[in-house]
Amino acid sequence: MKKIKRILILTAACCLAGCGGTSPTTFIHPDYNFGFVERVAVVPFENLTNDQGAGARATRYFISGLLATESFDVIEPGEVTEALAKHSLVRTAELTQEQAIAIGKELAVQALFLGSLGESASVRSGSSNTNVVTLDVRMVETDTGVTVWSTTNTETSGGFWSSLFGTGQKSKSEVTRICVERSIGTLVR
Hints:
This protein has helices spanning 2-16, 54-69, 77-86, 97-107, 160-165, 172-185; strands spanning 25-28, 39-42, 46-47, 73-74, 111-125, 128-141, 147-156. With 189 residues, it is an alpha/beta fold. It has a domain at 35-118 and 137-154 and 172-185: 3-Layer(aba) Sandwich (Rossmann fold), CATH 3.40.50.10610. Strands 1, 2, 3, 4, 5, 6 and 7 form a 7-stranded mixed beta sheet that branches. Helix 2 (54-69) crosses helix 6. It starts with a helix and ends with a helix.
């Protein structure tokens, strides 16, 4: 009996020691054929935080993560910036359906990725700091301007052991990269 208790306690400790963060909240359109999407564009993510450069950092990580999956042909960021400038678009995370369709046609893509960084901060807890990143991303198909995939994910730098012993904290950049990878993982498995 003692052996079983030890195993249960060890298992619970291992579960608590896992990565910091919660499970992403994800929507996948049930009737959309994702096999149709070959060429995509990533619109620069909006930064809704006080962390200067956090939106650009998340956008770069997202593009790299998409390319690493080898699932899509991702067009160059400069082409996206040029197309947005032609349409005088500033608030890129809030494109209308008509704007998404127009940008999609101009860039010759089947989908746009739009997103925002809602949190990128260091939170003080006791004697240690914990980095927290929240990313909200969606994929809009460009024939109709409809969202076919959306995810919101929050990651933290601390786990059970790092908060207990004050060690092993991940940098804000590392937490952002993990957040992006887990977000992409809800679309491309």
